[in-house]
Design brief:
Layout (H helix, E strand, L loop, with lengths): L6 H13 L10 E6 L2 E6 L4 H6 L5 E2 L2 E2 L4 H6 L10 E4 L5 H9 L4 E5 L6 H5 L1 H14 L3 E6 L4 E6 L14 E4 L6 H10 L7 E7 L5 E7 L1 E2 L18 E2 L1 H12 L2 E9 L5 H10 L3 E4 L9 H11 L4 E4 L7
Helix pairs in contact: 4-6
Amino acid sequence: MNNPPIPSITAMNQAVDIVLSSRHPENKVAATVFKDGNSLSKTNDWPPAILEKLGQDARVGDSSGTVHAEVNCLTHLTFPSEGGSLAITDPCCPNCAKCIAEAGITSVYIDHKGFEKDFAVRRGDEFQDMSLRILAHAGVSLYEVIRKENKIRLLYEPPNGYIPPEDNPIEIRPCRGTLSDDTLLQTAKLVKVKHERWGCALATDSHGKLWTLVASAHPAIGHTQDDFYKTDGKYDFILEPMNRILMGAARKGLKISQNHIWCSVLPSPREMVNLVGYGVRKIYIGDLNAAKKPASLSSKETLEANQIITFEEMSLSTPA
């Protein structure tokens, strides 16, 4: 009598089956999000608008033009990611680890061959020092999958009953307004505690009901402002507001309106790429001259010049 298939190995096989379809010439990665019999697999890829208008070699500020496989999955789900699992062909980078945590994923499975790839070896310190730390603090279980042997090896499991601290969770609330610029502006105006970098968006659920999402830049889930971590390298422990909003929508199974997103300052280049991958073509900004880093300004110029995203100023002092 055959044993029933193991869902995590099935999900990993789904990712492996499509990984070579990634258009990335060097680092082909695929991921599968799975939950309650539902699944979605995606590779790392260039959003069509970036690929067609900028090409594979172009940079968006200090970011590549690709959306990573994990985020590509999470931003295209038709079911809530909260409580779900993720199978990846390669170890995740710290940016994806932060998004995985924010999306409410509880288990991550990594193919054992992924640890042997040259790309993974070169960024091994980042995975060990940051990605693992981020996932552990968020209470995410981590496993290695040995597909040929049909085995799963535990790499990390949070303590029994562990609940990650959150001192500034994303706010997701039902809204009585209409899907309009006025509702978006009123949502932003009603936020009382504001971070230097924060944003909001309107979204709908599967029944067409309207929701608002509000988030500020904040350390990854499980880290608080009191244990703020910063690095001198490519990555830090902060998840920026637009990425938090994208992941918050994935967590609850909401679809963000592509024309009703607002951010207090220019998003980071990585946020901009993820927004383009989501299908956003216009974003409102509170201050078009403010950003976390100068690369956001050049990213804005690149995306606007090529008609990929329109950035429109919407000050909170604007009359409703």
